[in-house]
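Record passed on underneath.
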Amino acid sequence: MSSVSYTNKGSRAALALAGLLLVAINLRPALTSVSPVLKNIAEGLSLSPAAQGVLTTLPVICLGLAAPLAPKMSRRIGPERTIFIILILLAVTLLVRPFSGMLGLFVFTALAGACIGIMNVLLPGIVKRDFPTRVSLMTGLYTVALNLGASMAAGATEPLRQAFGHQWAPSLAFWLVPAVIAALIWIPQLRVTHTVRVRPRDGHSLYRNGLAWQVTLFMGLQSSLAYTVFGWLPTILQDRGVAPVTAGLALSVSILCQVITAIVAPLIGGRMKDQRAVLISVMLLTLCGLAGCLYAPIQSVWLWVVILGLGQGGTFSMALTLLALRAPDADTAAELSGMAQGFGYVLAAFGPLLVGLLHDWSGGWDVVGILLGLIGLSAMIVALGAGRDRLVRQHDTT
């Protein structure tokens, strides 16, 4: 009897992990599928550089604005049902978005960002709850899945556009397929019940906690660089003479390289007394990669996109890992996740927006590099606080 129970428990854990990874795959294609065909969208809908900046910014703003909805929906219907409903909504949104004109493109891009924002908040709490002794490993694994989804969309959207008769709309709509698959695989999770423990309020809000704000700012600043790369790297490279397919492939390779540090950085950081050295190291890699893509001879672009990917894989996975490492329990981790991703992604949205505005104003990319350098420097300063070996609620632990 015990062996049967063990097998059933193992099967449930394997199914839960598979569902978790498939959900994670859908957290970026709605965003990274746009930039490889952004020039085509702009030509088809007569979008100015500033409007293109708004298009790349909208979903990131909605990532943050929708984050507070996640715990409310989770408390009402449970995290499993919430994720299932949001996956279905995301699939419908991706189907309708490219065929609804200029207004629909902006509206449904924003809605796609909101869907992703809700799932973003719920996944760290599920990891903390279901895999409490393997938080760093599981965070790394689902970050890898997230990067794979982002990389596939970045690399395949332009070839899909060419395969669909040089039409960008069906190439964007294609990315509803992973959402449908994830929803189908997630169905067994709807039958799993968990005991919900509500931590009594103690009057110590995270919004009055300095460490919580440092974690939030690091999440926002590194995300600002990430979404700038997602939204603008292919356009930057095309303006420097790279062919559209190659520019999309460069973004795909950069994201794929994130897989390495997405696993390695949390494993190293989780074993260290504090994470400041790891955070500074991966941010320096990110800044070096960005500088190379902007200013180095274009023949060396593949070196710089690899360095960029290694840096950003580490910054993002470490930002997620901090949500667990700085929280004393799963409830606080979920609360910190909502705060960091809510405020953090709203802050992150200003990155791609300012890039569009600066490019429109200057007519080039040199000034953009200064902005990105300032963002990276700010992230390193914040990391010196967020990486300390402390908990956001010291008084909750014994």
In short: Confidence is low (pLDDT under 50) at residues 1-6. Residues 8-193+206-396 form a domain with the Growth Hormone; Chain: A; fold (CATH 1.20.1250.20). Residues 54 and 217 are 22 Å apart (CA to CA). The two ends are 37 Å apart (CA to CA).
